Amino acid sequence: MEKVIVIGHKSPDTDSVVSAVALAELMRCKAARAGELNKETEFVLNRFNLPVPELVTDISGNKVFLVDHNEQTQIVDGIENAEIVGVIDHHKIQFSTSKPVYLHFEPVGSTASIIGKLYIGQLENNPNLAGALLGALLSDTVIFKSPTTTDEDKLIAGNLAKIAGITDIQAFGLEVKKANASLKDKTIEQIVKADYKDFDMAGNSVGIGQTEVVDMSELVEKYNDIVSYLDGIMQKDGHRIVFFAATDIVNEGSELFFSGDKTIVEKAFGVSIPEGKRSIYIPGLMSRKKQIVPPLEEYFKHQ
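Structure (tokenized):
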């Protein structure tokens, strides 16, 4: 499978990139990324001496193995002229193909968890790859605080940590999350688009970005700029509504910014937003996949 390119979703996060790097090495394929790396991902790759995968923005004419995504709007450009040979993902299935391909989906907290479990035997002699997968797993599960976390994630994390020689999983996880948590030196585009995905919900185009922070006070001075940037995305891409969740990994909650009809937000999440306000803090909201996407899909399904 040497000619196969393993790639994650657009606006890649650590799970997407590391899963591509790990699977490509384990399957002897070529790893690629569909966007720029964030500081957290850079930290994990550097920490374990792994190469930065090549940037590929058009996959036309290639055989492709998708990791950490399967929704059409998140797949790299040119996929209609490429051959998908497999998918490993922990999101819901929204994928179809005209011929049989390898599919492996599991309801766990990260794609790194799946790869770590499937290839644990091969990883025993590769502590750097095991350590990077552990970093990706802890990133996507927000150090086991996300409601997407399962007991299996924790078991796999323990196995990967043992191979990588990491004795304090919590401390390592916090080290990973802090690498990308400060907003001070980032542009608004870097903040909102670092982990941003488009969704089709019953024919409605919805954009959702998310980032983790350790100091929510940094958002105060950026409030107007964030809202203005979301308005720009709405106008440019023609979405029904756009969200940006700033997730507090210490206090476990999110400030949910939006551009669009606030009635959608209020009905989908059961909240009341003061007139003129363009964000609301929701305690306990940590996961886009499990706590933002499902209520929105349920709302649009009944419209």
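The first helix runs from residue 14 to 27. The chain has eleven helices and eleven strands.
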